[in-house]
Amino acid sequence: MSMSVGSDSGEDAVLSEINTTPLVDVMLVLLIIFLVTSPVVLKLQKIELPKETNQAIQTKPENVNIVVNKDGDIYWNQKRMADTNELFDFLKVEAVKVPQPEVHVRGDRGTRYEFIGKVIYTTQRAGIQKVGFITEPPDRG
Fold first, then answer.
1. In this predicted structure, what is the pLDDT of residue 77?
2. How many whole angstroms separate alpha carbon 49 and alpha carbon 53?
């Protein structure tokens, strides 16, 4: 058995090669771990994600349209409401109709959530069952 202790000239030569064996070992271990665990992760729970749908609605004459502008002013079918109490009185009349009309809320983009929240709260207090938000679809540009 022999062993190399140094060069003949007395100077050690510098190795300029990178030893890639440890790198390959680590990469193979990571690859095996990934291959073993990926099927387990993908099959934990069977769920069905919701599908996005945009439905074009047909406005019926009996539907109630409420508009809230960016200043918080409330309009009932183009008639300005003084406050949510007046809106409540109008909604109370609509809530007892059979079938009950839908309420469509159109809020300006710059409207504070507080104003929209007051309208939704008022519709709930009046007993309205169906409330929806009307938006514009994004530009497909």
1. 82
2. 13
Phi/psi of residue 38, nearest 5 degrees: -65, -40
Residue 93, in any domain of the structure: yes
In a domain, 1, yes or no: no
Range of lowest pLDDT (3-12, 73-82, 91-100, 121-130)? 3-12
pLDDT at residue 116 tops 90? yes
**128 is in which domain, residue-wise?**
64-133
Does residue 1 surpass a pLDDT of 50?
Answer: no
Domain count, the chain: 1
- Tell me the CATH number at 77: 3.30.420.270
Does the structure show a pLDDT above 70 at 69?
yes
Has residue 10 been placed in a domain? no
Distance of alpha carbon 95 from alpha carbon 113, whole angstroms: 24
Question: Of 49, 55, 50, 67, which Cα lies nearest the Cα of 137?
Answer: 55
